[in-house]
Each structure stands twice: as structure tokens, then as C-alpha cells.
Amino acid sequence: MSQIRKAEHGILGEDMPTTDPQRSDQLGLVLAASVGRSAPLGATVSSAGVNFSVYSRDASAIELLFFDHEDDGRPSHVIRLDTAANRTYHYWHVFVPGLRVGQLYGYRVHGPFDPAKGLRFDPTKALLDPYGRGVAVPRNYSRETARREGDNAATAMKSVVVDPSLYDWEGDTPLRRPSSQTIIYEMHVKGFTRHPSSGVPEATRGTFRGLIEKIPYLQDLGVSAVELLPVFQFDPQDCPPGRINYWGYAPVSFFAPHQAYSSRQDPVGPVDEFRDMVKALHRAGIEVILDVVFNHTTEGDHCGPTLSFRGLDNGAYYLLERDRSRYTNYSGTGNTLNANHPIVRRMIVDSLRYWVEEMHVDGFRFDLASILARDSAGQVMSDPPVLWDIESDPALAGTKMIAEAWDAAGLYQVGSFVGDSWKEWNGRFRDDVRSFFRGDEGSLRIFADRLLGSHEIYRHEEREAEQSVNFVACHDGFTLNDLVSYNEKHNDANGEENRDGSNDDRSWNCGLEGPTTDAEIERLRTRQVKNFMTVTMLSLGLPMFLMGDEVRRTQYGNNNAYCQDNEGNWFDWSLLTKHADVHRFVKLLNARRTLRDSGAERERMTLAQLIREGIKGWHGVKLHEPDWTDHSHSVALSAEFPKEGLLVHFIFNAYWEPLDFELPQVGAGKGDAWRRWIDTFREAPEDIVPWQEAPTIPDSTYRAGPRSVIVLWASLGDGARHG
Fold it and tell me: For this structure, is 367 an active site residue?
């Protein structure tokens, strides 16, 4: 039998009227389908048509389904892949000539349903292509029908044929900004512009296009990179009943941008609109870092839906317990990807390459990255293959790789994550800085270490200081405003009886739980926010802060707002007016993190980098007499940089009373007097001033207000370069 006859023989008897010329033409294309190739995986477009390839080791038969619309309950055409002609080893493939970009498709996979052996084939389910570059979501999408018995085609997501080459990048490339020159703004694509106060047209609110319209705000704020919460297609129904998965840590595709973040309605719209956003951000000098979830999928535990991976090769894609009907759960979400299986390793690296080469992103933050160090039995490996695959891939060289170096099962690898180029979210920086400004006993010494790059954590590794990603607040936990406004989490709206979320936030409400009209408490809260921002920006490492912290955005005490897709969780742009002083403070702080924007490499060093290099000594209220006892809550640090002609002096007072600090001597032939750049105890506009406008401090001591941070600088003579 010829190959074409084999393909014809494989077409199922669907009701396909031939009176429609277009459908008749499509039927002709399907009849002409040929063997195809096993590589590359996914739907690959050429001038002659589209090649489809998918992996499944134990399937007995696979059908390729074509749909005309995402809401269709029956495919318009079906190609049954011949087990002899259309299968090479464990790869099933077919070539369909003349097929167009934008075509919707999926798979039905036949095989044994034997959970005790880890096999969960279900030919009644329409499955997404793991390598699909686009996803179309029906209006009546249902996670529940994918979980129950029976056909779910009408309510299933469909893959979309995409040709990545059909886009004009206009010369754009990833920016490759040095980490030492990077300030990360962690943000949510939808939440950034969805609020009615955003000023973005309603049709584009909460989309990639909406974000483009707010790029001038990001430039003015002074950030150099945005870290986007998950933008891979995820399942918004993966959450408690009556709520919406807002954060997006529920991936169903590792190649397709989330359809709901596109203002365009056409099937390939999300792909092009995402690239429009990247190109526009790059033109503004802002890098794009994606928060990626390679530790689990939205298919959940043994009771979860069959959407893609489970129905293609359950045992390859997931870690299974000894009872192979159950899933290992190191992610806390019901399942764990088998990241070091050869097929999954390849998929992860291929995904990263795709987002760098075809979508031009600049970096990735890996959610629960420590899971990637586990083998098929869940044991931690000293040299995890997938991490070294990522590290050594030439296409990814120069791409920022940031690990959340822990998982939900208790594995904590901050300071010991495998690899030479990885940065790490420094959860200890977050916790210890919070403890210091809360006034905890015994927190001073470790705070000082965090300030200078967490040497206690990273000293065993000969790597750059920016290995530590420093942050005090992120999406997971309290916002900065809530950190200083609540002693306890208030997560009742999540529907889990306040059991979810962290119970150790090291927060302090400054005297009253929740919102208040007490002016004194409000001043203290604002001061604490400024303290946290100052330490984050001036500590040695790569700084990151959360969307809206620059205007005291609140989540009303919810420290796990993953399912709150509402105005209470979106960026309220009216806060720019309400907390204009905080916004101004952060702008001026960001503007001065880097001392120089051009010139020699040394002139591009950050103020934080120079601190370690030029440190002269630690002080207490008296010079050269720091108090490192557990009862101490204040310290000062001075540094001198002859090449920059600069002296810098820091005072950190977490004590609840004002303290008078002796200052190192300047002047008397040595140079300029001290100038006050920052004093968080002072009201705006004296809390921070433009660097060149810093007023002189004539006294030999400086009174640091309670719970405040002070930064002073002085010139080292007429040739000083402090402009």
C-alpha cells in the first residue's frame, strides 16, 4: 500500500459535507497527507505545509484532529496515524500539505487505561500538543469535563498552528544588560492595567497591549527589567470553586502565550502581541524576564483533568509514587514534572530556546527550581542533567537565569543551587531584613551580612555578588504596604478558611491591624516602606521589588492572593496621587543606584558594589564602636572611594527612639562636608533629594529618628566626581 493510500485509509468517517468548497479543499489536503518527520516536535510550518510530531511511547494509536472553531464539538477532519508509516520509535508524525497558519488542532491518543501501571490513556479527550505554539480557548472551556468520563472536544482547549518566522522584529534582539545594572520590577500582566483607573482603553486593559501603553511609567520609575508572572497558557479554573486562578502557576503549555492576555481575537494574536510588547520594552531599554513553571502542570493529582501530558505519556512527564496510580507532589499542587526524564528535559530546554530565539525574552525566573534537581525517584541529585542542559546550552548563554531555590517539600538550596551562572531569589535576605526593621532581638549581625551581599551564604562560591536577588516583598506573600499594616494574614476570601499562605511573614502592623486614619501610624508605615526600599536598592546584589510597592498597593492582608482576580488585587493607579511621596522616593532611589551611566567599566559600578570595595568600618552611635549584641538595633557603615572622589556613610536605626550618631570627619583639608541624600524619618521632599542637591550637614553628629535609614555622602576634594 502506498504512503498516500495509507494516509487515506487512516481518515475516520466523520460527517464532512463536501458542498462547502473550503472544507472540500481541506479534505483534499488531508487526503494528501504523507508520512512526515519525527523532528522537530510540534507543528512545524514550511512552504509546502505543516509537519506534526508528538511523543508517546505506549500509545496504541493516535489521531490528529482538525477544528474549524475553538467551540466545535466535533473535528472537521481526522487523520489516524498509521502505526507502521507514521511512527518512528516513540514519535508519531504526519505531514499535511497546504495547511494554513492559524489552523486549530489537537490529538486523541489510544492506549491502556491502567493507573496501577502509570498508564492513563483516554481517547475520549482532545489533547493539546505539548509543543503547540498557540492555544485557542473555547468560550465554554471546562476543566470539569476534562476530568469526567466522556468526550470533551467542545469544551477543550485547542492547539494553534503558528509560524514564528512571520514577524518583523525590526532588528530587535535581547538586551543582555549586566546584572549589576539591573533593577527588576515583578509584575502581573493583567493586574498592571486592568483597573479602571489605569487610563488604558477598556479593550486593551489587562493585556500585553495595555502594558505597552504603560511603558513610559516604567521608564520614569527607573526599572531596567520587568519580571512577568506566568504568561504561558494556564488554566484559570485551577483554583477553589467560584474563583479564578489569577497568578497563572497552573501551566498547560510551555510554548504558547496566555490567550486571555491578548487584545486580539485571531488564533495567532497572542503570539504577535506578546512580541510587540517585548519589542516595545526593548526600545525603552527594559528587559523581559519570564516567571516559568517547569515543576508541575495544571493536570493536578490522580483526580485531575486530562488536558495534554497525562493523556500522551503519563509516566514520562510526571513523577509517580511507588503506587503508580498516585503522583509525587513536591510542588504542593498535586503533581510534579519528571524534569530529568530525557523527554521532559528536552521539552524544557526547547521551550527556553523558543522564548529566547523566537520571542526575544531576556531571562527566566524558575518557580520552585529545586524540583529540577530531583530524579525520577524524587531524590536530590548532585548534578541534575536538566540544570546542566540549561546552563550549557549555547543558545541560552547570556540569558538571565534566576532560581527560586526551594520547593514545597522542604528542599532549600539558597546558597547551594547547582550551576555557575544561576542567580537565586534570596529568601533569607527577605526574612532577615524584615526581622531587623521589626526590631527583633538578635537580628542586627545577620542584617549587616545581608546588606553586603549575604557573604555568610555565598562565600563558598567564587561568583559575582549579583548571585543574590534581593527582595523584601514579592507576589507570594504580603505587599510592602501589608507587611507594615498587618500582623496576621487575612486570606478568608480564598475560600480555604485562612489555612493557605505563609504563617511566618515577620510583619508588623505598626500598632493597629489593617487600614487606619491615625496619621502617626500612617507616617510610621510610610517610613518603614521607604526603609525596606532603600535597603533593597543599596544592598549588594540584584534588587527586585513588587508591582505597586512604590505606591503602597494593598491586598488587604491577603498573603496568598493567587485566586483574587478583582480590583482589590489589581494596580490601583489612584494610589499615585495618594502616595505620591513614596513614588517620588522610589524614583529618586532607583535613579541613583547606579553612579554612572557611561564611561569606563568602573564608572558603571553601582553604589552597592562600591560599598563592599571601599568599606572603611562599622560604627555604633560612637565611631568604630559597633554594638553587635542581640539587644542592639542600630548600626552605621562608612566607605571611601578615592577613584570616585566619594565618601558614603549609612545609618540604620531600627530602634524605637532617636539616636545621635558620631560622623567620620571630613573637611579640614580632606574635602567637602557631609551631605544628606536620604533620611526616611523626614517628610517629603526632605526624605530624599536629587544627589546633586543634597544639603550639607555641618555638625559632627547626626540624629537618626526612630526606625529610619540615613545615607550621607561627601566629596574628597575639588576633583571629586560625584555629579
Answer: yes
CA dihedral (375, 379, 381, 387) positive or negative: positive
All structural domains of the chain: 3-160 (2.60.40.10), 610-715 (2.60.40.1180)
* Whole-number Å distance between alpha carbons of 349 and 339: 10
Instruction: Pull the grid cell for residue 711.
Output: 545615607
| E strand intervals along 332-480 | 363-366, 400-403, 423-425, 468-470
**SS3 label, residue 526:** helix
As a whole number of Å, the end-to-end CA separation of the chain is 81
Which residues are 109's β-sheet partners? 62
Q: Are 402 and 365 in contact (CB under 8 A)?
A: yes
Task: Tell me the whole-structure pTM to 2 decimals.
Answer: 0.93
CB 506 within 8 A of CB 685: no
Catalytic residue among 299, 404, 464, 476: 404
User: How many alpha carbons lie under 13 Å from residue 162 in its C-beta half-sphere?
Assistant: 26
Whether 344 contacts 254, CB under 8 Å:
no
User: ω into residue 40 within 30 of 0, thus cis?
Assistant: yes
Return all residues near 376 (Cβ < 8 A) that are at least 6 apart.
Answer: 319, 338, 340, 341
Q: How do residues 608-618 score in pLDDT, each as one tens digit?
A: 555 556 677 89
> What's residue 723's pLDDT?
36
> Of 687, 706, 710, nearest to 633 (Cα)?
706
Does an H or E element contain 216, and which?
helix 215-221
Catalytic residue among 367, 482, 640, 687: 367
Active site residue 500: no
H-helix or E-strand spanning residue 523 = helix 519-538
Q: What 3-state class would DSSP assign to 589? A: helix
What is the rounded CA–CA span in Å between residue 309 and residue 184? 33
Segments in the chain below pLDDT 70: 1-31, 461-465, 594-614, 667-671, 717-723
